[in-house]
């Protein structure tokens, strides 16, 4: 009988150690948004490639925006990685959202290019310098 109680107590202790405190785990929507922003921040960092200290690190900005640190993100990633289906769903959603944003930006850029083309056709040719025109026609003095 004593062995059974000992088994229950040890099982309870080990079960509690395997389940992280859920207050340290980000909720699914927040986790998804952070991961999406981190992907964008990483790409921004690759594109900009600056050593300028005045330019803030985009990844650090994501952590600051959400009020988290890398440890909390790691704990959440470890927690959610136990469910591979969740990971697949979240990354599929992120890719769909990023593709939607890319398509929207492409439409805006195309629209701006078309607007510039139309306006450049409407702009009259640059008039000649008025000083040169006066010289050519020799306006009489009054």
Account of the 3D structure:
- The chain has 142 residues and is mainly alpha-helical.
- It has a domain at 22-116.
- The protein has six helices and no strands.
- It has helices at residues 2-18, 28-48, 58-66, 70-80, 84-122, 130-137.
- The relative contact order is 0.08.
Q: What attributes characterize this protein structure?
A:
single chain, 142 residues, mainly alpha, 6 helices, 74% helix, 0% strand
List strands and helices in order, with pairings:
Layout: H1 2-18, H2 28-48, H3 58-66, H4 70-80, H5 84-122, H6 130-137
Helix pairs in contact: 2-3, 2-5
Q: Biggest β-sheet: count, sense, barrel?
A: none
Quote the distance from N terminus to C terminus. 126 Å
Task: Give me the strand/helix succession.
Answer: HHHHHH
- The low-confidence parts are 13-17
| H/I helix tally | 6
Number of strands: 0
User: In oligomeric terms, what are we looking at?
Assistant: single chain
Q: Report the principal-axis shape.
A: elongated
Radius of gyration: 31 Å
Quick overview:
Helices cover 74% and strands 0% of the residues. By secondary structure, it is mainly α.
């Amino acid at each position: 009988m004593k062995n059974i109680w000992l088994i229950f107590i040890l099982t309870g202790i080990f079960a509690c150690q395997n389940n992280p405190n859920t207050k340290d785990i980000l909720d699914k929507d927040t986790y998804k948004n952070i991961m999406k922003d981190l992907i964008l921040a990483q790409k921004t960092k690759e594109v900009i490639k600056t050593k300028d200290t005045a330019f803030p690190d985009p990844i650090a900005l994501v952590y600051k925006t959400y009020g988290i640190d890398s440890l909390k993100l790691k704990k959440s990633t470890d927690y959610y990685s136990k469910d591979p289906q969740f990971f697949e769903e979240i990354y599929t959603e992120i890719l769909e959202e990023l593709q939607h944003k890319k398509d929207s930006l492409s439409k805006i850029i195309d629209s701006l290019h078309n607007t510039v083309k139309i306006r450049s056709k409407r702009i009259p040719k640059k008039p000649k310098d008025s000083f040169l025109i006066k010289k050519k026609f020799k306006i009489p003095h009054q």
